[in-house]
Write a structure and sequence with these properties.
The chain has helices spanning about 70-75, 90, 185-195, 210-215, and strands spanning about 1-5, 15-20, 20-25, 30-35, 40, 55, 80-85, 100-105, 110, 115-120, 145-150, 150-155, 175-180, 200-205, 225. The chain has about 230 residues and is α/β, with parallel strands linked by helices. It has one domain (about 1-225): Ribonuclease Z/Hydroxyacylglutathione hydrolase-like (Metallo-beta-lactamase, Chain A), CATH 3.60.15.10. β6, α1 and β7 (about 80-85) form a beta-alpha-beta unit. α3 packs across α4. It is globular, with a radius of gyration of 16 Å.
């Protein structure tokens, strides 16, 4: 595995290679994955280095994870877009025909050309807004993704707490986990999650500084790469 740092802090732009997978961090929760001749984007938002996508994965509709402007930057006629039902209404404002739109909820699978996607639940159990409601209720069916491509399994957790369903997520090569509290896992919760999932490599996202990312790194025995 090789990691090439191209920036100065946790929110900067980096490239990492893990065998036959190349992953670039665009913004806080937006990553570009290149493998098997395919280009995959997760949660397109403020993309600085756009390439046309074969696959776009959107976990939910909140700002920072969903942007019609950025979808347009990487969209082409045969792009496959996988979204949860909660993201479908805002996507209707997209002014291009999407011929390969897949709307699925948690616990479902979709098979594509050289890849497959399995969805995982992404929700809060103890993160509440000022009205006393969970930021990401389970019943809204927001999702994370397990992407199988080029012989590797990549888990992109989305906005979530450490939830019981993570006990069933196995054989992960690369896990991208939200860290830092607020609307997602605290450092301690993320450490418990990564120790449960046992990926070969973990990448923290949602962190607000490299110090916070390093704090997460210090709480787990799993190999952590900070992008």
């Amino acid at each position: 595995m090789a990691a090439d740092r191209l920036g100065g802090d946790c929110l900067a732009f980096f490239v990492m290679k893990i065998e036959n997978i190349e992953i670039e961090k665009e913004t806080n929760a937006c990553f570009k994955i290149k493998a098997g001749g395919k280009v995959v984007y997760s949660d397109p938002f403020k993309i600085k280095n756009p390439e046309k996508a074969d696959l776009i994965l959107i976990t939910h509709e909140h700002e920072g994870h969903f942007s019609l402007e950025d979808i347009e930057k990487v969209f082409k006629e045969d792009t496959v877009m996988v979204i949860p039902p909660v993201a479908h209404p805002p996507l209707l404002q997209f002014d291009k025909d999407i011929f390969n739109l897949v709307v699925i909820g948690p616990g479902e699978k979709y098979y594509g050309d050289g890849w497959e996607v399995e969805t995982a639940p992404a929700y809060n159990v103890n993160k509440f807004n000022s009205s006393g409601k969970l930021f990401h209720p389970r019943e809204d069916e927001r999702i994370g993704f397990i992407l199988a491509i080029s012989g590797k399994r990549i888990y992109f957790a989305g906005d979530t707490d450490f939830v019981p369903e993570m006990n069933s997520i196995k054989n992960i090569d690369l896990a991208l986990l939200p860290v830092g509290g607020g609307t997602v896992m605290t450092l301690e919760e993320a450490a418990r999650a990564v120790e449960t999932i046992q990926p070969r490599v973990a990448i923290p996202m949602h962190c607000t500084s490299e110090e916070e990312a390093n704090d997460f790194k210090g709480k787990t025995r799993i190999k952590v790469v900070i992008l």
